[in-house]
Specification:
Layout: H1 3-9, E1 15-21, H2 34-44, E2 48-55, H3 59-72, E3 75-79, H4 90-98, E4 102-104, H5 106-118, E5 132-134, E6 138-140, E7 149-154, E8 161-166, H6 170-185, E9 193-201, H7 206-222, E10 227-234, E11 237-246, H8 249-267, E12 271-273, H9 279-289, E13 294-298, H10 304-309, E14 319-324, H11 328-335, H12 339-345, H13 350-364, E15 368-374, E16 389-395, E17 401-408, H14 413-448
The chain binds adenosine-5'-triphosphate (ATP) and magnesium ion (MG).
Magnesium ion (MG) binds near residues 83 and 88.
Length: about 450
């Protein structure tokens, strides 16, 4: 059996763990970012990161992590702690766990010596430590630093596992990892890759989404290949991330499309995008498609809604104008909100939001008018209308009050403003989606008869 054949029967590397070594990353001032880079690169070649850890520079602690990792995964990447000083323990810890002796590689010593010489220095004796290689390991050239990386294989022939040691400084690690992927790692994977899809959802809580989709999750996980789902909740909205390890892009797309269709059939109305697009982009294309224009009257959002809408290139096709009407006087003067309505219901109320929506729609001469009035806090809340109370109204063609709703958002001022803008856009989006749906059904009925 020749060496090539041995490589052929080696099981592909599928699951990885990353260990970042360095006590500085256990302080509040330094973050481990290498693991994010490493994760991205590994995902590109279909290796899933199962776990990661940050450990201080104590050899015993590093050994425990390394021991656990090599039991659980096929590929362990350790970053940091390859320097020449006493607190650089990675090389020793890994050699001890794997039961390998460390042997000085004279070629590496010469390379380090030459590196120092080029800058006019003698190599300090302690740098010899960086030339120590565990028996059976391969040193990996570091074009940007003195510490070489190490590639170590362990385990028996059919289930060879890999431990990869890389220096901590990102500018050294990044090019080295790219080279290793091209020269060594890519050939050791199954050829399958990880593909993701992000679904954005509004108007439902995380637990609602979870509950509604539980049967779908079970089906996805039982599928071949399985689709896994992760829910992230941020700023009053939900992101559902679907991922699958598939042999190629076409099959990944097919599998993920099917999972997305499952989601749509259960909570379709609450999904605003299935490819990670933001609300303003989604709403923008709906308005553009339908040749409709909008204008906004903003109080507590202070223009944020319109700012977000106009972040989208080409938004002049559907954004006509906006006014910021913070005071009661402005609401009356610029939009014709009757003072009596404000007196009777309060500035933060559905009748005022409706009057604002109608007022801006008429004045701008557009299809849709939005009115937003609320209390962003931290002061100004009352028992009946606590901070986060926001009334949003949508006036449509013909001056109809299409929708109005009072929301109770949580969070700080900025979060409340963001959620109010999001909810206002979502209100228009839902209205347009419904119209499209109704138009589609009418068309279908006409065709059928
Ligand atoms: P050196 O030869 O430079 O000592 P090393 O492999 O010993 O390399 P460390 O001493 O652990 O690496 O780290 C050197 C620097 O690299 C740190 O000061 C830090 O700025 C950066 N660094 C280390 N680990 C990480 C990490 N996981 N994420 C981001 N930066 C890191
Ligand atoms: Mg160091």
């Amino acid at each position: 059996m020749d060496a090539t054949h041995l490589v052929d029967i080696t099981a592909p590397l599928q699951r990885a763990e990353i260990i970042a070594v360095g006590s500085e990353m256990l302080t509040p001032v330094k973050t481990d970012t290498n693991s994010l880079f490493i994760t991205g690169v590994l995902n590109e070649i279909g290796i899933e990161v199962a776990s990661k850890a940050v450990v201080g520079d104590r050899i015993d602690d590093v050994m425990v992590e390394v021991q656990q990792a090599i039991e659980r995964v096929d590929l362990l990447v350790v970053t940091g702690g390859l320097g020449p000083t006493d607190d650089d323990v990675t090389r020793d810890a890994v050699a001890r766990v794997l039961g390998r002796q460390l042997v000085e590689d004279p070629e590496i010593v010469e390379r380090i010596r030459a590196r120092f010489k080029r800058r006019g220095f003698e190599m300090p004796e302690i740098n010899r430590r960086q030339a120590m290689v565990p028996v059976g390991g391969t040193a990996i050239d570091n074009p940007n630093g003195s510490a070489p990386g190490l590639w170590i294989e362990h385990g028996h022939a059919e289930a060879r596992k890999v431990v990869l040691l890389l220096p901590g400084p990102p500018r050294e690690l990044q090019p080295m990892l790219r080279t290793i992927v091209a020269e060594r790692l890519a050939g050791r994977t199954s050829g399958a890759r990880l593909y993701r899809r992000a679904i954005n959802i509004t108007g439902r809580s995380e637990s609602h989404v979870d509950e509604a989709l539980a049967p779908a999750y079970a089906r996805w996980l039982a599928g071949q290949p399985p689709v896994s789902a992760t829910i992230l909740a941020a700023l009053g909205q939900i992101e559902l991330h679907l991922s699958v390890i598939a042999p190629n892009e076409a099959s990944a797309r097919e599998i993920l499309d099917r999972a997305v269709a499952d989601v749509m059939s259960v909570i379709g109305a609450d999904v605003y995008s299935v490819d990670g697009e933001s609300m303003e982009v989604v709403l923008g294309s709906l308005l553009k498609q339908a040749h409709l224009r909008i204008a906004a009257a903003e109080s507590c959002t202070g223009g944020l809604l319109t700012s977000r809408l106009t972040d989208v290139p080409g938004s002049s096709a559907y954004v006509e104008r906006a006014v910021i009407v913070y005071s009661n006087e402005a609401k009356t003067e610029l939009l014709g909100v009757p003072p009596a309505v404000i007196d009777e219901h309060g500035a933060v109320s559905e009748p005022v939001a409706q009057a604002m929506a109608r007022g801006i729609r008429e004045r701008a001469g557009v299809d849709f008018g939005i009115g937003i009035t609320g209390i962003a806090g931290p002061d100004g809340g009352t028992e009946a209308k606590p901070v986060g109370t926001v009334a949003i109204a949508l006036a449509g063609p013909g001056g109809d009050d299409l929708r109005v709703r009072t929301f109770h958002f949580v969070g700080g001022r900025a979060m409340i403003k963001f959620q109010a803008a999001q909810a206002a856009m979502d209100m228009v989006r839902r209205t347009l989606a419904q119209r499209q749906h109704t138009a589609g059904s009418a068309e279908a009925a006409r065709t059928a008869s």
